[in-house]
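Section 5: illustrative case.
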């Protein structure tokens, strides 16, 4: 029996500041125990966001997250800028969420490497 047969592959652990490749690797691994939060405006979220992200604008973040997520959940957060992302992460940490990763570059970095995005189109009547 080889040493390799005893090795069970696992995804990289979450980092406080993560590159889009880190998040994509976890998603490709099929790890369901994470949430992606987009704190940009709802208009920006609807126009284009990371596939699977939920939109919670910055001004409603602390009030909406407890309704949605468990404190022990891994959360990847991104905003319009890295500064906005850091601000959102700080708010979440202050609210008791300790497993927070700031997604460096946000949706722009995600799109730049060709990862999937989605949009919500408005129905005009």
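Designed sequence:
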């Amino acid at each position: 029996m080889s040493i390799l047969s005893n090795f069970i592959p696992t995804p990289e652990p979450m980092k406080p500041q993560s590159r889009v490749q880190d998040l994509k690797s976890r998603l490709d691994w099929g790890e369901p125990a994470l949430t992606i939060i987009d704190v940009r405006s709802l208009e920006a979220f609807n126009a284009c966001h990371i596939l699977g992200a939920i939109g919670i604008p910055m001004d409603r973040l602390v009030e909406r997250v407890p309704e949605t997520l468990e404190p022990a959940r891994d959360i990847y957060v991104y905003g319009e800028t890295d500064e906005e992302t850091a601000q959102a992460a700080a708010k979440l940490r202050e609210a008791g969420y300790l497993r927070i990763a700031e997604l460096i570059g946000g949706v722009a970095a995600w799109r730049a490497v060709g990862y999937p995005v989605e949009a919500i189109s408005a129905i005009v009547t």
